[in-house]
Design brief:
Bound molecules: 2'-deoxyguanosine-5'-triphosphate, calcium ion, zinc ion
Oligomer: single chain
CATH class of the largest domain: Alpha Beta
Structural class: alpha/beta
Strand order of the largest sheet: 11-12-13-14-15-16-17
Helix content: 40-55%
Strand content: 5-15%
Distance between the termini: 59 Å
Number of domains: 4
CATH architecture of the largest domain: Alpha-Beta Barrel
């Protein structure tokens, strides 16, 4: 069993114990152990079962937890967890994912109204019974209903980053089998959607049938959902991500990639187009209607070309104008990861980051960047120890000195300055002017009326210092919807003020989403793509930001931090009013 899975069992149990109102000391010990195990560099399960090592040698793991770990390794669960699951249905864990509801509220709802599932919860809210409970109220009832809606939208879907990781793991596994020619992911993952419903993996070569055997027998496969000659489906990992694996003949690979990449809407148009030309298109190839002769299928390019289109990048296959563009030679030359020259949003130990400026600079230099901006938080984010004016100015000076002393790449002093509720910047313009780069972001008061939120953002755009709007919609994938506001009005003003939109590459955000980036581009906006890294490993998330930009039809020229250092510096020095 992997560390992550063990950690999950422990923290789920802690959650349920909290609902049960149990001793907080025990709860904390499970939570702490979960954190320790999750970040332990070695597989804890291996230590538990080894004869010459003791799991209690890991700092933070005591005798009690050691016993629990042994039980988990022996039978995949432990006493306490079984007790909790006997008391509360596993669906109570789901209730904890509804924003605005803590364990105490869930316990109350369970006690008074036998709320066991999200459906139960919704009914109780609609019947206005939640507001009558102690410390609740009508406002919370509304909030919970909105959270349920957000949760339903997200549920059953997985973050792109997680889907990518799982697919890469499986593809590497398949490729280690003999006789595998190609193994690739299709579906929404290949289109770069921000969340993915299930994985679609296609395999060719003499070894392809063995890949189907392999996925069914995989130690992490929880359940076989279907198994045939050409296809196997399993539910994979503790997260129960569905994985569909298809074995294909070499000459069908292109047609199959095309078909299973989708989207459905895109494929409908392409099939219709084929029929108009007397051809039929399916996952095996492109065929003549009479005689059923194959005219294309080994590669996607030949399928598109035979039908009169240039090859369409997967990120554009949403039936939103890509066919016209592909017919007229008007497809964009989409931005690529290799175009990126810098990363303009990251945090350090100065606020809530986990690494120092120098560590972040070294990690960024290793990625081949020419420059970065360090953009720690401002004082309104007190929880993150945000910078006040004095600290911000001192930080700018410190960065100037460090650059002189020598850094592995050029570092700019920046700040991610909070946009306050009224649209004012959190720090004085005098202080902001000392910094090289100012990102303005909303982190609070996200439940304003749309008109008020629009005004707030419009006012922020009037700041002489703001150069970039950070994660403009505020969404948190699977957790929180965007706050509603008039995006087009804000984009139009941003274009006039020459303030850029960030595409935040953090997998939980991917904000702006692709479709809004496209809207903003039409309004004349330009962009940055940055990771919002809180530790060096997060710098790799740039890839997800670039995919999101591609879904917004963006080219390298639309994105400021594809520019070489000299050009970026002249942009920084442009006079502002
Ligand atoms: P997802 O998994 O919900 O994130 O989205 P997709 O796009 O990966 O959808 P999925 O896994 O149901 O199907 C993969 C692709 O197969 C889909 O994008 C288009 C293609 N496809 C074409 N026709 C059909 C059809 O009739 N049914 C299904 N299920 N897929 C189809
Ligand atoms: Ca899929
Ligand atoms: Ca599928
Ligand atoms: Zn932020």
């Amino acid at each position: 069993m992997e560390n992550k899975e063990i950690a999950q069992l422990l923290s789920e149990t802690a959650d349920l114990m909290e609902v049960a109102g149990e001793d907080s000391f025990r709860i904390r010990s499970y939570r702490n152990a979960a954190a320790v195990i999750q970040s332990h560099p070695e597989r804890v399960a291996a230590i538990v079962v080894s004869t010459d090592r003791k799991v209690t040698d890991i700092p933070g793991i005591g005798k009690g937890i050691a016993g629990v770990l042994l039980e988990i390794c022996q039978r995949g669960s432990f006493d306490r967890r079984d007790q909790m699951l006997a008391k509360y249905p596993a669906s109570a864990l789901e209730l904890l994912k509804i924003q605005g509801l803590g364990p105490k509220s869930i316990a109350l709802l369970y006690e008074h109204h036998n709320v066991r599932t999200v459906d139960d919860l919704e009914r109780i809210c609609r019947e206005q019974k939640l507001r009558a409970l102690p410390r609740m109220g009508a406002k919370l009832e509304e909030k919970v209903l909105r959270s349920i809606e957000a949760y339903r939208k997200s549920t059953g879907r997985f973050l792109l980053s997680f889907a990518r990781r799982t697919a890469d793991e499986l593809i590497a596994d398949f490729q280690s089998l003999p006789g595998i020619e190609r193994a690739e992911a299709a579906g929404s993952l290949r289109r770069g959607r921000e969340t993915v419903g299930d994985l679609d993996i296609l395999v060719t070569g003499a070894g392809a049938p063995a890949a189907l055997e392999r996925i069914v027998a995989h130690p992490k496969s929880q359940e076989t959902l279907g198994q045939g000659v050409n296809k196997a489906s399993v539910s994979f990992g503790l997260e129960r991500l569905q994985v569909d694996v298809r074995a294909l003949a070499h000459e069908s690979f292109g047609a199959a990639m095309q078909y299973f990449t989708g989207s459905k809407e895109h494929n409908v148009v392409l099939r219709t187009q084929a029929l108009k030309q007397g051809l039929s298109l399916n996952e095996y190839g492109l065929f003549t209607l009479e005689g059923e002769q194959r005219v294309a299928g080994a590669s996607e390019e030949e399928v598109y070309q035979r039908l009169g289109y240039a090859w369409i990048p997967p990120e554009l296959r949403e039936n939103s104008g890509e066919f016209e563009a592909a017919q007229n030679g008007a497809l964009p030359k989409l931005i690529e990861l290799a175009d990126m020259r810098g990363d303009l949003h990251m945090h350090t130990t100065e606020t809530d980051g986990k690494a120092t400026l120098r560590e972040m600079a070294e990690a960024a230099a290793a990625l081949g960047y020419q420059y970065i901006a360090i953009t720690d938080h401002s004082k309104a984010l007190a929880m993150a120890n945000g910078l006040d004016e004095a600290r911000a100015v001192a930080f700018a000076r410190q960065v100037r000195d460090l650059n002189r002393e020598g850094l592995p790449l050029r570092v700019f002093s920046g700040i991610e300055c909070d946009i306050l509720r009224n649209g004012a910047m959190d720090l004085s313009e005098d202080a902001l002017a000392e910094l090289d780069l100012v990102i303005g972001s909303v982190h609070s008061h996200m439940n304003l009326e749309p008109a008020e939120m629009t005004d707030r953002l419009l006012r922020a755009l009037e700041s002489p210092s703001i150069r970039i709007v950070g994660h403009a919609t505020g969404r948190r994938l699977s957790q929180r919807n965007s706050y509603p506001f008039d995006f087009e009005a804000v984009a139009a003003r941003a274009a006039t003020r020459e303030v850029l939109f960030e595409i935040n590459a953090s997998p939980e955000r991917l904000d702006l989403p692709g479709h809004l980036a496209r809207v903003a581009k039409r309004k004349g906006c330009r962009f940055t793509i940055s990771t919002d890294a809180h530790r060096p490993a997060h710098l790799h998330n740039m890839a997800f930001g670039v995919i999101t930009a591609r879904r917004g039809w963006l080219e390298a020229a639309d994105v400021l931090n594809t520019r070489p250092l000299s050009e970026f510096e002249s942009w920084l020095k442009e006079p502002r009013t």
